[in-house]
Amino acid sequence: MMSSLVRRLKGRSAAEIIRLIGHNIAYHVKEMTPQARARNRQFQAFDETWGTDTFAIRELHTLDVDPAVAAHARRYQASNGTDMPVWFSDLNVDFARTVFIDFGCGKGRALLQAARFGFARAIGVEFAPELVEIAMRNRDIMQAKGALAAPVDVVCMDAGQYVLPADVPLVCYFYDPFDDAVMAPVADRLSSLGQPVTIIYLEPNCVGQFRRCGGWSESRSAGTLVLRNAAALAR
């Protein structure tokens, strides 16, 4: 474990290490609030209902991943998709024509929640092979129970290298999955697309990359940041 931690910290500046420590302290303080405990009970209920494994946090140093890529990633923590009906209603999503993409999908919690809607496809992009295996196992469990309304696939690769589907409307989901080094090429690719693209971004720490690219409108749905390109606004 110590060697994994050393690899994670290697090459980081003192300021980066301090920010990382501060981020972890803030997280643990927040997790002690009544709201966080209620959320966690809800997350656990999802797994109890479906027999899936999405709740438990996985720190990056516990995964067999490329340290050079992991240096720019966040740990896995299930995200809260309870507002999806509100988001999708506000955005007037045409599910049958739209592809949902979860960047940094981890064990697939948000991906599987979205797949309960009638998207044309639901795609998870995840760089950790072990998390991909868990996500696909969770998919198979829910699929066998008839709980999914969309076909689900999980791609194992660096999100910065992922080639986006062309000529279909996209709804892209981010739960603070990685830092600016990875978000920059992702934002560049999304910004270059001509089809309607909507981004739902929880904890938008790298929203500056989209602002750098330009061409995105910003709004809120149930308190969550939503970005839309011109084609999405024109629908």
Describe the 3D structure:
By secondary structure, this protein is α/β, with parallel strands linked by helices. It has a domain at 84-233: Rossmann fold, CATH 3.40.50.150. It contains ten helices and seven strands. The protein has helices at residues 2-9, 14-30, 34-50, 67-70, 84-90, 109-114, 129-144, 180-191, 207-213, 230-233, and strands spanning 99-103, 121-126, 152-156, 170-175, 197-202, 217-221, 224-228. The protein has a seven-stranded mixed β-sheet. A hairpin with a 2-residue loop joins strand 6 and strand 7 (224-228). It is globular. The mean pLDDT is 88.
Report on the biggest sheet: 7 strands, mixed
CATH-derived topology of the domain at 84-233: Rossmann fold
Structural class: alpha/beta
Per DSSP, what share of the residues sits in E-state strands of 2 or more residues? 15-25%
Number of alpha- plus pi-helical segments: 10
What is the top-level CATH class of the domain at 84-233?
Alpha Beta
Main sheet: which strands, in order across?
3-2-1-4-5-7-6
The CATH homologous superfamily of the domain at 84-233 corresponds to: Vaccinia Virus protein VP39
The radius of gyration is 17 Å
N-C termini distance: 50 Å
Just name the CATH architecture of the domain at 84-233.
Answer: 3-Layer(aba) Sandwich
Low-confidence stretches: none
Helix content: 40-55%
Q: What global shape is seen?
A: globular
How many β-strand stretches?
7
Average of pLDDT? 88
Give the SSE string: HHHHHEHEHEEHEHEEH
